């Protein structure tokens, strides 16, 4: 192996767990997340000589991952390739596992562009401007997509009793 290949391998090994978790949050399917990551690191390998010179290589790769996800959403890849309704959730750790699972499930119901915005803003902890750069849109669009995505999450996570009370109060 060449020194350049060694650099690529070392960087991918370090980045892989974070990339995989981000991909899972985008698509809510570990198998598809692995496919997204594989496609992303394959593209990264092809562009490695130029990519390794990036100011922030992790951000560069994360941008590749999000664009891969959004591109597949547009092309209907998901409808052609999905073979199961859902996969089992891996065991989670933390104080409120149920709430975390509820949020993950709710996130899958949010439209892809809004989901990508929420993952970049709140999981990857990017600023509005950084998120806009990754998504290739304006900061106003990021703010709008964030607002709509959070509103959708709130509606989905709202207890049924609260939704029913609201519906009766408006009738």
From TrEMBL:
Presence of keyword RNA-binding: no
Entry-linked InterPro entries: RNA_pol_sigma-70-like, RNA_pol_sigma-70_dom, RNA_pol_sigma-E_actinobac, RNA_pol_sigma70_r2, RNA_pol_sigma70_r4_t2, RNA_pol_sigma_r2, RNA_pol_sigma_r3/r4-like, WH-like_DNA-bd_sf
Domain RNA polymerase sigma factor 70 region 4 type: 102-153
Domain RNA polymerase sigma-70 region: 12-78
Keywords linked to the UniProt accession: DNA-binding, Sigma factor, Transcription, Transcription regulation
Entry similarity comment: Belongs to the sigma-70 factor family. ECF subfamily.
UniProt-recorded name of the protein: SigE family RNA polymerase sigma factor
